[in-house]
Amino acid sequence: MSILAGIFYFDRRPISAADEAQVRRALGDFDRQPVHGFRSPGLIMGVAGSAPGSPEDNDFSRSPDGSVCTWDGRLDNQEDLRLELSGDSPEPSTNSDLAVKAYQSKGAAGFRSLVGDWSLAIWDGRLRSVVLASDYAGIRPLYYYRGADRLLWSSCLSELIRWTGINKLDEEYVANFLTHGTVAHRTPYRGVYPVPPGSAVCVSPDRMMTQPFWDLPVNEETRLQDDQYYEEQLRTLFRQAVSVRLRSHGPVCAELSGGLDSSSIVCMATQLKHADSHCSPELITLSYTHAGSTDEKYFRAVERACNLSGIHLQLEELPFVAPNQPGGAAPGWWEARFRELARLMESLGSSVFLTGQLGDFIMGNVVDDSDQVADCLRQHGFLQAAREAFSWSQSLRVPIYSILWRALRTNYSSWAAPSVAATMCDRYKHIDSLAPEFRKRVALSDYNRQSELRWQAASPGRRGRFRTLSEMLSGRLLQAPEALQHVSYTHPFAHRPLVEFMLTIPPAVVCRPGEPRRLMRRAFAGLLPPAILKRRSKGTYERVYRQALVPMAAELLKQPGDIRMVEFGYVDRRSITERLTRFREGLDCNESQLRQLILFEFWLRNSKNSGADLVAGASLSWIN
To answer: Is the torsion defined by CA of 492, 494, 497, 500 positive or negative?
Structure first.
């Protein structure tokens, strides 16, 4: 994959040697990577890419009208775009060429036609503006800072922070991270933002605007003749999703947990390799195991079925989180594991890593999809809805009236009901330990306001799914982790045509009461080993989580007066101390949210230890 960076001065000042050095440093080890750059009055932009001849050796282009594009990522529909943008006899075009042509033909709206995992920066010489954009899921990283006189951008958040010298935290990010775990359209640093997924940020000297080019298909509906046609289309799209991600001159690595998602990817990649053994790369699986793991017998079953000898990593040696590994430029889990994966991939000569992320969601791995009752109520009347509600009440073992009430409320308002499972939580579920003054100072409700208009337009039975996906995408949960941003870290289940298909077919085709993944199990019956196809359980990491987090909680309790979140005024000392004590003793404490507090606290401490001491908002009088 490639690295993008650039500086745009609005007053056309000359690019200094220091500016050039900043950009070149952001582009990484340019002695080992091809670097392309462009300079114009007040502008310098560059891209450092993969080795020549690789599938990504097409990351820079300059068109006759003066437009320049730097590109990071993979484009899956090149042939279709060449025909669409170049006529009946298209000349060979690189990814960056096609991106510029799409922009020239329709402006930022043209980026919708680019299917793949990508980010880009375009210099529009005619309008004297910079355009930054990312694919619909925000998988390839891209960040920017707009000051009074300049725009800075980079694929690397830590480099952008170093450029700007910003050390003030964004309090809205902090509040939403501590309560929700994900944050839409923000980074931990005030004034530094990610490019929104599915959007273009257009910056000229006198204005800045964000223009969406993709949106949730809330008004689209796909209906086929019967289940067989849905199954065939799912198989076709999934084969395509895996195939386009196998383009590599070296081995391809794939996570294999033994669940249906990762197993489907590995089995499909194996099937494709058997169909074209000369062109398909070597497949190497990476699996995680730990004491008490229930996954091992399943991923070994896939290894036997596919005749693979995988690499098994012990999670006891790669903790969920550690006091000195709470993330990099932003707080994050599994840093030790991601670093080990990066090391392994380098030793194997691999630049592609496949994951099963988003599979659970897209394939309908839900016990409770009783929102289908709302659609029955809307389409068939109360009798059909009552029958449907009875089926779901039997499956979920909850009273039928609660399902009917949710369906009525969903059908006659813009509300999206939480699942039954989401309502079953400990008595601490509403306790987040945020300090009252901090809560007043930030707008937590903005988290839900940002994208609610997008999913509210969906039919009642699909509204919850669109809301969930909207929050996942806006929080860039599929973005490559920092340690793996130099490789193609990609998710076949996030293939946009596949996602759009699964979201627009009737929910009752995807899953039914007592039948999660109904369509997937039918469509992949000939692909997966029987043991995987019949698997109903899912391995959990609760034991791994506690092994990592309990010692960290105990460390905080040793000196509760030194908790930085309390010092910054973010959390209440008494509340967090009580909850840490309960967590250590295995008692109710709203553990999932408490994990966010522990992670963020050690991330703050790690930033101080590394010399990048972060501070809270400038309005607080105690800042030194």
So the answer is: positive
As a three-state string, the secondary structure of 346-362 is HHHCCCEEECCCCHHHH
Confidence of residue 521 (pLDDT cuts 50, 70, 90): very high
Q: Is residue 365 part of a domain?
A: no
Residues 91 and 10 in one domain: yes
Q: Is the pLDDT of residue 427 over 70?
A: no
Which residues constitute the domain of residue 326? 227-358+478-533
- Alpha-carbon separation of residue 182 from 165, 336, 395, 470 (angstroms): 24, 20, 31, 12
Count of domains in the chain?
Answer: 4
d(Cα 324, Cα 609) in Å, to the nearest integer?
9
d(CA 96, CA 118): 10
Averaged pLDDT for residues 381-392 = 88
> Which two structure tokens, joined as six digits, stand for 128?
């004297």
Provide mean pLDDT across the span 319-329.
Answer: 94
364 domain-assigned: no
Last residue of a domain, one of 464, 499, 516: 464
Q: Which of 219-233, 366-380, 533-547 has the highest mean pLDDT?
A: 219-233
301 membership: H or E segment, kind and range: helix 296-306
Sheet holding 60-62, edge to edge: 60-62, 68-75, 116-124, 129-134, 199-204, 207-212
Q: What is the pLDDT of residues 84-128, one digit of tens each?
A: 887 655 676 789 999 999 999 999 999 999 999 999 999 999 999
501 and 601 assigned to the same domain:
no
| Contact status, residue 242 vs residue 272, Cβ threshold 8 Å | yes
Which of 182, 212, 242 is a domain's end point? 212
Cα–Cα distance, 348 to 400 (Å, whole number): 55
pLDDT in tens, 461-471: 888 899 899 98
Rounded to whole angstroms, the Cα distance separating 556 from 199 reads 41
Is 218 within the bounds of a domain? no
Residue 11 has pLDDT above 70, yes or no: yes
Give me the pLDDT at residue 54, please: 46
In a domain, 314, yes or no: yes
| CB distance 565 to 601 below 8 Å | yes
Beta strands in 240-381 (DSSP E): 252-255, 283-289, 311-314, 352-354
| Residues 104 and 162 grouped into a single domain | yes
58 versus 404: which is more confidently predicted?
404
The identity of residue 4, as a single letter, is L
DSSP class of residue 524 equals T
As a whole number of angstroms, the distance between CA 303 and CA 618 comes to: 55
CB distance 583 to 550 below 8 Å: yes
Q: Kindly tell me if the per-residue pLDDT of 61 is higher than 60.
A: yes
User: What CA–CA distance (Å, rounded) separates 379 from 387?
Assistant: 14
State pLDDT tens for residues 261-319: 999 999 999 999 988 866 678 999 999 999 888 999 999 999 999 999 899 999 999 99
The rounded distance, in Å, linking the Cα atoms of 373 and 462 is 11
> How far is residue 126's CA from residue 37's CA, in Å, rounded to a whole number?
19
Angle between helices 460-474 and 496-504 (to 10 degrees): 160
